[in-house]
Write a structure and sequence with these properties.
The complex is a heterodimer of chains A (163) and B (419). Chain A is of the alpha/beta class. Helix content of chain A is 28%, strand content 20%. Chain A has one domain: Aconitase, domain 4, CATH 3.20.19.10. Chain A contains 6 helices and 7 strands; from the N terminus they run E-H-H-E-H-E-H-E-E-E-E-H-H. In chain A, strand 6 (126-129) and strand 7 form a beta hairpin. The model of chain A has no long low-confidence stretch (mean pLDDT 94). Chain B folds into 2 domains: 5-15 and 23-262, Aconitase, domain 3, CATH 3.30.499; 271-418, Aconitase, domain 3 (2-Layer Sandwich), CATH 3.30.499.10. Classes of the chains: A alpha/beta (163), B alpha/beta (419). At the A-B interface, helix 3, helix 4 and helix 6 of A face helix 2, helix 3 and helix 5 of B.
């Protein structure tokens, strides 16, 4: 699966309160949460997003609470993928379970500027910066998680076990 | 193979041979937890999984503590959804209303978690139970739905950072100050994907409530778990709370650690985390005339009886500054009752504090103490992210219950020995 979109760059240690403040956690509707995505960073942040755009974070992206509403808000805002220097543990697992594409690239985040046009290949983990021509390889998805993914994600994996 | 506490506890609950860090293991869960914010999503996922019942009606806890007493119609609808699910599934440990407390204060108090357990919760501060020698960690709602259905989950065996705490503790320096100091050293991602294991003479002497305060904030260093050995103190605490057959657990001699951090607490002042990250830590004496509009005493970090006693001791016979709203939220009904009996609530009310019901409320900017733009709060809670307690232009400082009480009196952040 390939995604092409504009990069929206954010800083290090972006916490889940920045992604979706707790006061909006009174719904689990992706569209509603998507409208408030990054409202904890800047009021009206989500208005810049066009469908298919790609988020680029720094170190420890998604730190803080366990709220699954955070990856849901990102998906609901129209962004199918997050590229980051590194991910906070709970967010990584949540994003994965919600079907958000997560790519960890370490210092190579320096090869992406805000507004660059990116092409992300979710199956190979390869990122093409169409603006600069750079090609970036992300760290591979852990084997066990790839296995869950091949079974259609956690929901389907459990469905198979409880049946 | 000599094992760390994390490896040892994971092994107890796994058929897999638990080896080195990085290995994926499947483990049985002792207790599975969700709250009024995270349970609704978990219930949706649980249904999508086609699960008809929870793995054990006794081992799932649903605690409506975040937006309760319900702050608005939407949050009331969420709680209703959780309540109806709890009834349908026959869940024994459902809490709402007069029996509800802040989840991570409530479960240990009810003897529902103890040493050697594996506890997973759809709440990042589930790591609190590491204070009892449990391997406890936060996950998202869908992972929790899977654990509610199957009674098992998967873990990556974490590397462990050993934190050795020694020296002589000043009377104004508390476990909260120690964990803030540690986060200040290693940073908010210093324990990313790793477990923290606490050891040393200060840990041996520390009471269980203090250990839970420290384990609670392991996540603020990115940690997967914050583990304390389960010793005689742990066993006595758990027996008193009604936990069945608590056992002592220690890591093995010769276990492998990825890093060791040694902290000598001798001469250490109370610590404060300044905006907007928990690792922006300074000694309280370094702050110069930081005026506050609000002080919050409570939360899963510092809303227990020891915390209320320490604050009341400072506050006794004094008045809250007229420019400060001092909000006191005992973390459970039982703590509230005990504080009443000990005369602590009387001290708070006479001083001019606002005493409210057990709730997470202001900690996450939910309700009961939200900040306007330009306002500043000193809180005994665990996170000071931008906008965490209200307006994006407000500020949160984190400190101990004693610093909170002193600050409420002085109207500015101050050393408790100076009021």
């Amino acid at each position: 699966m390939k995604y092409t979109g504009k990069a929206h760059k954010v800083g290090d240690h972006i916490d889940t309160d920045a992604i979706i403040p707790a006061r909006f956690l009174v719904t689990s509707d992706p569209v509603e949460l998507g409208k408030k995505c990054f409202e904890g960073l800047e009021q009206g942040w989500a208005s810049r997003i066009n469908n298919g755009d790609i988020l680029v974070g720094g170190k420890n992206f998604g730190c803080g609470s366990s709220r699954e509403h955070a990856p849901i808000a990102i998906i609901g805002s129209g962004m199918p993928a997050v590229i980051a220097h590194s991910f906070a543990r709970i967010f990584y697992r949540n994003g994965f379970n919600m079907g958000l594409v997560l790519l960890e690239i370490g210092d190579d985040t320096g090869k992406i500027s805000d507004g660059d046009q990116l092409e992300v290949d979710a199956s190979t983990g390869e990122i093409k910066n169409l603006t600069t021509g750079d090609i970036i390889k992300s760290l591979p998805v852990p084997e066990f998680m790839a296995d869950i993914l091949s079974k259609g994600g956690l929901v389907n994996y459990v469905r198979g076990k409880v049946a | 193979m000599a094992k760390t506490l994390a490896q040892k506890i994971l092994q107890r609950h796994s058929l897999d041979e638990v080896g080195t860090a990085g290995q994926i293991v499947c483990c049985k869960t002792s207790m599975v937890l969700a709250n009024d914010i995270t349970a609704p999503l978990a219930i949706d996922s649980f249904r999508k999984m086609g699960a008809g019942k929870v793995f054990d009606r006794q081992k799932v806890a649903l605690v409506c503590d975040h937006f309760t007493p319900n702050k608005d119609i939407d949050s009331a609808e969420q709680v209703k959804k959780v309540r109806e699910f709890a009834r349908e599934m026959g869940i024994v440990h459902y809490y709402e209303g007069g029996n509800v407390g802040v989840e991570h204060a409530l479960l240990p108090e009810l003897g529902m978690v103890g040493p050697g357990d594996i506890v997973v919760g759809a709440d990042s501060h589930t790591c609190t139970y590491g204070g009892l020698g449990a391997f406890a960690t936060g996950m998202g709602s869908t992972d929790i739905a899977a654990a509610m259905a199957l009674g098992e989950t998967w873990f990556k065996v974490p590397e462990t950072i050993k934190v050795n705490i020694i020296g002589n503790l000043d009377k104004y320096t508390t476990p909260k100050d120690l964990i803030l100091y540690l986060i200040g050293i290693i940073g908010v991602d210093g324990a990313l994907y790793r477990a923290l294991e606490f050891t040393g003479s200060i840990v041996d002497e520390m009471e269980i409530e203090g250990r839970m305060t420290m384990a609670n904030m392991a996540i603020e260093a990115g940690g997967k778990a914050g583990l304390f050995p389960a010793d005689d103190k742990t066993v006595a605490y758990c027996l008193e709370k009604g936990f069945e057959n608590p056992e002592k657990i220690f890591s093995d001699d010769g276990a492998l650690y990825c890093r060791e951090v040694k902290i000598d607490v001798t001469g250490m002042s109370p610590q404060v985390a300044c905006p907007h990250l928990p690792d922006n830590v300074k000694a309280v004496d370094e702050l110069e005339r930081v005026k506050v509009d609000q002080v919050v005493l409570g939360s899963c970090t510092n809303g227990r009886i020891t915390d209320l006693r320490q604050a009341a001791e400072i506050l006794k016979g004094r008045k809250v500054n007229r420019d400060v709203r001092f909000i006191v939220l005992p973390a459970t009904p039982k703590i509230f009752e005990q504080a009443l009996e000990e005369g602590l609530i009387n001290i708070f009310i006479k001083a001019g504090a606002i005493v409210g019901p057990p709730t997470c409320g202001p900690c996450l900017g939910g309700h009961m103490g939200i900040l306007a733009s330009g306002e500043r709060c000193l809180a005994t809670t665990n996170r000071n992210f931008k906008g965490r307690m209200g307006s994006l232009d407000s500020e949160v400082y984190l400190g101990s219950p004693m610093v909170a009480a002193a600050t409420a009196i002085a109207g500015e952040i101050i050393h408790p020995g100076k009021v």
